[in-house]
Design goal:
Blueprint: H1 2-25, H2 67-82, E1 85-86, E2 89-90, H3 95-108, H4 112-125, H5 132-145, H6 149-165, H7 171-187, H8 191-203, H9 208-224, H10 228-240, H11 246-258, H12 266-278, H13 286-299, H14 303-315, H15 321-337, H16 341-355, H17 361-394, H18 397-438, H19 458-472, H20 485-513, H21 516-520, H22 527-551, H23 555-566, H24 572-588, H25 593-604, H26 609-615, H27 628-642, H28 646-656, H29 666-680, H30 683-696, H31 701-713
Helix pairs in contact: 1-2, 1-3, 2-3, 3-4, 4-5, 5-6, 5-7, 6-7, 7-8, 8-9, 9-10, 9-11, 10-11, 12-13, 13-14, 14-15, 15-16, 16-17, 17-22, 22-23, 22-24, 23-24, 24-25, 27-28, 28-29, 29-30, 29-31, 30-31
């Protein structure tokens, strides 16, 4: 009785307290399939074969321990002080309860090996105990956490068969056994078996909270597998359940909205989500509701409504960082497709910011996309500037004046607005300073009649200092300071002259800035200057087209840039490269336009490597033999180079160029080719090969290296 009603009673209270707190504080990520057991596993936990020292000491203060540690300490104390192991058997019927509490406490403290020892002890020494079934499922769950899935599944299967053989089935044990089996199969990546066991757990469920969670997980898994009807059925069952945690109901509604397809009228989904948003009880879930509403509007083509709801989902109170990241990413992709690269970059930055230290595959991809976007922003700005310059050079002088007069008008409006904002901020700053100073330390010396001593009032001090400086100028702190009045006057005059000079400079700058000829005079005048801008613009169009094709996989944007480049009559090397890239992209789309660009490459540049790759692809295509061979092929070529077999290396490089196209090793192959040409053909060929890398492999380490080598050559 002492064991049950004193030590174990207090231990179980501590355990129950910490378990409930853990359940309440656990935050599910509903954007992924939920874990079957809501337990956050720490990657850095330390396994011990014995309890922590402070967990077993009687004189250890309970305040210094977690409730699970208190529960563990109580269980250990019950065993140490009240076990009655006599003649090979335990006479205290509550000791097996103590061992079960010990194992469960260690399990939730994530010390799984010591927990397993406690459960094994029960099974070995108390085979007839009333809680033997519970010990079996807890041992199986611990084995799953220790990645001993086969052992866990075997013991659970035995338990389930025994339950079926018995006349009366213990539903709670069967439910738990199926849930743990689902956990094991989930770790073994068998979705079908996870679904099977969760369905069985639902059929035997006695705990409505567990049933709701399992149904929600089933709905997510069915949706993941493309079984939309079964998914909707599972979510509807969750919604229909009574007396379950409300979070499962509302997220079942959101998951149902994710099943939105073109067969479902979008208005029906929108109306339901709007209805849920207006319910006061759903305020903690507004971020998820707004996000899903944004997804529905996006899929139905309502661009502005989509953006509005994604922005709301980001700024809603209680929005989770993961959900914010998803909304930021969708907005970034949307603005990227609209060529609004500045906003796209800002949203991608926000994704990385809210993700913190998380470095998943998705975050790494976004990080790389953000890095690539930097070069896109530079190229797009360069194109915009150069296109604008050529437009201005193509119009009459009178039209140039009108263009810059409009620009100056807009400039004045912007500057006036900026001045208003700056003035308002300055006034606010002065107001705040005065407010602080009027409630300063000097007020503690204020008499009841309201009088204030001068030196205790910061406001009067400030005014006095300004008045003194205006009358006397800057004076050193020394005796007879008034005798240096002439010097002060000279200093004041010099300061006034300096201020006047600055005012005149500002005035002249404004006159220039507001004069159209100030801008017209900066336009390129000579043929050399115009040719330089012409070459830069065309090169930028070509490089930007390759960035869209290779790094962003945005074929339409790449086609647009390269086709526009050809309309500007670029140099022959750009004509060759652009036509070949257009041929490749249109061929991938099975477009008849591929034949047009193929003819240009083959007829105008018959001796080029691009023409040979088009006409004789079988001589170059190593890729068909398997992607893994590319790296081996590169190593083979590099071995030829390091062995000074430069001719053999060059021959193999030219054969491999087609195979490496679009691969991450392609820039490395191009740089190796440059080094080979340096050995075989000299400085000129080396320089051209490096320039090819700079032109065709933008924003790569090899491009940076090629630029460094070109500087050394020059």
């Amino acid at each position: 009785m002492t064991t049950e009603y004193n030590i174990l009673y207090n231990g179980e209270i501590a355990f129950e307290k910490d378990w409930k707190e853990m359940q309440e504080n656990y935050e599910d990520n509903y954007w992924n399939v939920l874990p079957i057991e809501p337990l956050e596993i720490k990657e850095d936990y330390v396994e011990e074969s014995v309890p922590k020292k402070k967990g077993v000491l009687e004189n250890e203060s309970d305040e210094k321990q977690t409730p699970f540690e208190i529960a563990e300490a109580k269980a250990v104390k019950a065993v140490q002080k009240h076990s009655m192991f006599i003649d090979g058997s335990e006479r205290n019927s509550k000791i097996d309860d103590a061992y079960l509490l010990l194992g469960k406490s260690r399990y939730y403290s994530q010390r799984f090996i010591p927990a397993l020892e406690a459960f094994d002890y029960i099974l070995k020494n108390y085979p007839e105990a009333s809680l033997i079934k519970e010990a079996i499922v807890w041992r199986a769950k611990t084995n799953v956490r220790l990645e001993n899935e086969e052992v866990a599944l075997e013991s659970l299967q035995e338990r389930l068969q025994e339950e079926k053989a018995q006349g009366k089935i213990d539903a709670s044990i069967v439910e738990e056994a199926h849930m743990i089996s689902a956990m094991a199969w989930n770790q073994l990546d068998s979705v079908a078996m996870v679904i099977h066991h969760l369905n069985e757990a639902v059929n035997f469920s006695k705990d409505k909270s567990k049933k709701a969670r399992n149904l929600l997980i089933l709905g997510q898994l069915y949706l993941q597998e493309g079984e939309r009807e079964l998914s909707q059925k599972s979510f509807q069952e969750v919604i229909s359940l009574k007396k379950i945690p409300y979070k499962y109901k509302i997220h079942a509604e959101i998951e149902r909205a994710k099943n939105y397809t073109n067969d479902t009228p979008p208005s029906q989904i929108v109306d339901r989500l709007q209805e849920l948003i207006e319910i006061r009880e759903n305020r903690p879930y507004l971020a998820a509701l707004y996000h899903q509403l944004g997804v529905v509007h996006k899929e139905s083509g309502s661009r502005d409504l989509s953006v509005q709801n994604f922005v709301k989902s980001i700024h809603t109170k209680n929005a989770q960082n993961f959900q914010k990241g998803l909304s930021y990413e969708i907005l970034g992709d949307l603005f990227f497709k609209e060529a609004n690269y500045k906003n796209a970059g800002a949203y991608y930055d926000s994704v990385l910011q809210v993700s913190g230290k998380i470095k998943s595959k998705r975050i790494r991809r976004i990080s790389k996309k953000r890095e690539n976007l930097e070069i896109v922003l530079v190229f797009e700005q360069r194109i915009k500037r150069n296109d604008s310059i050529f437009h201005l050079l193509s119009i009459e002088p009178s039209e140039q004046v009108l263009f810059f007069e409009k620009y100056i008008t807009q400039l004045k409006i912007k500057e006036a607005e900026a001045l208003k904002v700056a003035t308002l901020q300055q006034k606010l700053a002065v107001y705040q300073e005065r407010a602080v100073n009027t409630v300063g330390p000097g007020q503690q010396y204020t008499s009841k009649s309201g009088g204030k001593w001068y030196f205790y009032n910061q406001e009067t001090l400030a005014y006095g200092a300004q008045d003194f400086q205006r009358n006397w100028g800057k004076r050193e702190l020394k005796d007879n300071w008034r005798w240096s009045s002439k010097l002060a006057i000279v200093e004041n005059k010099l300061e006034d002259a300096s201020l006047e000079k600055k005012k005149n400079a500002v005035s002249n700058e404004l006159l220039e800035k507001y004069n159209p000829m100030f801008y017209i005079d900066k336009l390129p005048k000579t043929t050399k200057e115009r040719d330089s801008i012409f070459v830069l613009r065309n090169t930028t169009y070509y490089q930007l087209g390759l960035v869209y094709k290779e790094q962003f996989k945005e074929t339409e944007l790449a086609l647009e840039k390269l086709e526009k480049l050809l309309s500007y009559d670029p140099s022959q090397r750009l004509v060759l490269g652009a036509n070949y890239q257009l041929y490749k992209m249109y061929k991938a789309q099975n477009s008849p336009l591929a034949g047009i660009y193929k003819k240009v490459v083959v007829n105008q540049f018959p001796n080029s490597i691009f023409a040979r790759m088009i006409l004789q692809p079988e001589d170059y295509n190593v890729r068909e033999q398997g992607e893994a061979l590319l790296e081996d092929k590169y190593k083979e070529i590099y071995y030829l180079y390091s062995s000074e077999n430069y001719k053999g290396a060059l021959k193999e490089i030219e054969k491999a160029m087609f195979s490496f196209e679009g691969d991450k090793l392609q820039p490395k192959l191009a740089l190796l080719r440059a080094h080979v040409l340096a050995k075989l053909a000299g400085k000129t060929a080396y320089k051209k090969a490096l320039e090819f890398i700079v032109l065709n492999h933008v924003n790569t380490e090899e491009e940076k290296r090629a630029k460094e080598l070109l500087k050394k050559i020059k």
